[in-house]
Design a protein that fits this description.
Layout (H helix, E strand, L loop, with lengths): L19 E7 L23 H11 L3 E6 L8 H10 L3 E6 L6 H7 L5 E5 L5 H8 L6 H10 L3 E7 L8 H13 L4 E5 L11 H4 L10 H4 L2 E6 L2 E6 L21 E4 L4 E3 L2 E2 L4 H20 L5 H18 L4 E2 L8
Length: 330
């Protein structure tokens, strides 16, 4: 009998957050984060209407909807989508790089949001610009207006080597958030980025439940520091080389609705270049047939090689591949 590595039940992949649906609204983005994981993501060509998206969301039965991108504030029908989801009694959240948060934009596009997650990766906004390519003017004023609109705000900070990369800087960021009137912050380790990875576990010397095997011991940990609700998001061995990777994982998947109107089992990777791979396989086939003709290989050997090549081609030419055992994107 196969023995599975079971994830912590409080993890995304362990079955927590099953009442959430992530909605990929657009692949467009005005940022320039070098470690952006969406660069490897699948970007459908088709864009369905707002009504189709709402229909799919309602059919999913999920209560909490989080709008993502790309940069979701670039989605042209954002307010219409939020309004129609409000009618369906959905809690609607959105994660943004903060580029479009002036009062006019908020009043025209974000009314009805339950919560807004703003990705700001350094309390020095000039440094945040170096990281994201986005400079945010008058942040305190904008945050105040957003919260006056009834929208709950959380700041998301990816801890990056050279920026927020030690305990003192984390504490300064928390003070920065508090001074801005924000009382929720998430600190996350970087995914798939060894050079810029910052270990939150060692930074806080294993306090707050932080651990070096988040797959089994938990990747999401909540605490309160200086009156601010803080969430620590750890990366497991599927997302960083610094943690043990489960050998035989048994995970609970999650659904992601893409802007083409299809709900996929997890986040998708770009499809393979089928034309290029087929052409290479044809060359190999012609060379192999020539070898048979010249008696340099037997027909039995050729049959075996062709069979293996076709099996490989069939595997590689699947339209989509999900992130293997990795449902976590944000």
């Amino acid at each position: 009998m196969t023995e599975f590595d079971i994830p912590n039940p409080n993890n995304f992949c362990g079955g927590n957050f099953q009442d959430w649906l992530e909605v990929y609204l657009t692949s467009k983005c005005n940022g320039k984060c070098l470690w952006c994981i969406d660069k490897k993501g699948f970007h459908p060509k088709e864009h369905v209407s707002v009504n189709v998206l709402v229909k799919k969301i309602v059919e999913s039965g999920k209560k909490n909807i989080i709008l993502l991108g790309g940069e979701p504030t670039l989605y042209p029908n954002l307010q219409e989508l939020i309004r129609k989801l409000n009618i369906e009694h959905k809690n609607v959240y959105l994660t943004t790089n903060g580029s479009n948060l002036d009062k006019r934009f908020v009043d025209l596009n974000l009314i009805g949001l339950t919560g807004l997650n703003i990705s700001i990766h350094d309390y020095n906004l000039r440094y945040n610009y170096f990281i994201t390519g986005i400079y945010i003017n008058n942040l305190e004023e904008k945050l105040k207006n957003i919260q006056l609109s009834g929208i709950e705000v959380r700041l998301n900070c990816n801890c990056i080597k050279g920026y927020i990369d030690n305990k003192d800087k984390v504490l300064e960021y928390i003070e920065f958030a508090k001074n801005m009137g924000v009382h929720k912050v998430r600190f996350a380790e970087l995914k798939d980025s060894d050079e810029e990875f910052v270990n939150l576990v060692k930074m806080f010397t294993y306090n707050y439940g932080l651990n070096e095997d988040p797959y089994k011991l938990g990747c999401n940990h909540n605490t309160v520091i200086n009156g601010v609700n803080v969430n620590f998001r750890l990366m497991c061995g599927f997302q960083t080389n610094f943690r043990p990777k489960p050998k035989n994982p048994k995970q609970i998947g999650k659904n992601v609705l893409y802007y083409n109107g299809i709900i996929y089992d997890g986040w998708q990777m770009k499809p393979k270049n089928k034309q290029k791979e087929t052409k290479m396989t044809d060359k190999e086939l012609i060379r192999l047939l020539n070898d048979v003709y010249d008696n340099e290989t037997t027909t039995q050997e050729a049959f075996y090689k062709i069979k293996k090549a076709l099996e490989k081609l069939e595997t590689e030419n699947k339209d989509l591949k999900t992130y293997s055992y990795n449902n976590c994107r944000y």
